Amino acid sequence: MADHYETLGVSREATTDEIKKAYRRLARELHPDVNPSEEAAERFKGVTHAYDVLSDPNERQRYDMGGDQGGAGGFGGFSDVFETFFGQGFGGGQRGPRSRTERGDDAMIRVDVELGEVIFGAQRDITVNTAVLCDTCQGSCCQPGTSPVTCDVCGGSGQVQRQVRSLFGNVVTAHPCGSCHGYGTIIEHPCVQCSGKGRVRERRTIKIDIPSGIDTGTRMQMRGGGEVGPGGGPNGDLFIEFRVMHHDIFSREGNDLLATAQVSMVDAMLGAPATVAGLDGEVQFEVPAGTQSGDVITIRARGVQGLHSTTRGDLKVAVQVITPTKLSGRERELVRKLGDMRKDPAPTLGEFHQGFFGKVRDRFFRAG
Asked: Where are the beta strands (DSSP E) in 31-134?
């Protein structure tokens, strides 16, 4: 018995799509309507049998393991296979006319949002170019006052039948009617507004809710927010992909907000209250006495509200102590006296550390 893989001209590692393409190519070449020779008919039977086996995962596994060669006869699914590749109606009855009403396409748009909008969420009006229901015909595709008429070629079935000779004898096949294109009816007076489509393109404004806690790449689905379908069919869905814009002061790590604050040398030594402008109002915190550059002060629950949550992250402020570069004579004298009083040790070499902002980022992740 011929090897099914050799019959189809594919390797044993061929994918389902590769097997399908190989069968389609050979079937079009060997079908009796195209090639009436007896040799082609025999090859056609073998090719079809091989496809029946290898296109079914269970049968293919049994075949690869040396089991039976694809079931009884191998032609149980031939009618379905033929219909898949050569049209409806092989050995079967009529399927009925096509519907002019179809579901609309889904659509996707990208929306840029500010970091401040992410904290609690926000609403936004966006403009989309989409397909909407035709106001003139309300999706009927016909000029007002008219309606489709039954196709006199197919009698409203949407199909025409013809008899063809094959190795099985005379076979009746059904094909979409060329006059009505399978709809079963003809629109003699199409709507002039939509050209018989039942829909027109239009720019419209819709209001969307921007959820709190979203991040770049977050997608939101609005069911029914996409394009209306042909013939006034149901709307597809609208998918919105968000991109959170860069902020000059605040960055984000999960639901935490990160920022830096410059503190004078005196406030760092003695400690002091501080007030800074946050994304949702002023933020007050204490700079502890003895604060060092790179220390991180955590302000609880002043970060981003989580997605589908009421809990907020934290605001983490990294301190950068600013050393004065210009001193008056009096200031220089006071600092020198302070140095004499403290008797700090002289500078020494120590372990190398990365720059300030790299050190701050390490501390951000340890803070909390």
From this structure: 107-113, 122-133
Tens of pLDDT, residue by residue over 237-251, are: 999 999 999 999 999
Residue from 224, 187, 194 nearest 134 by CA: 194
| Alpha carbons 84 and 143: distance in angstroms, whole number | 36
Q: Which CATH number fits domain 4-86: 3.30.420.10, 3.20.20.300, 1.10.287.110, 3.40.50.2000?
A: 1.10.287.110
User: How would you classify the pairing of strands 238-244 and 219-222?
Assistant: antiparallel
Q: For the whole prediction, is pTM greater than 0.85?
A: no
Exposure on the CB side of residue 252, measured as CA atoms within 13 A: 23
Q: Could you give the 3-state DSSP secondary structure of residue 273?
A: strand
Q: Sign of the CA dihedral 119, 124, 128, 132?
A: positive
Query: Backbone phi, then psi, for 33, in 5-degree steps?
Result: -65, -25
Q: Is the Cβ–Cβ distance between 255 and 303 less than 8 Å?
A: yes
Does the 251-366 domain belong in CATH 2.60.260.20?
yes
Note the pLDDT tens digit of each residue in 296-325: 999 999 999 999 899 999 999 999 999 999
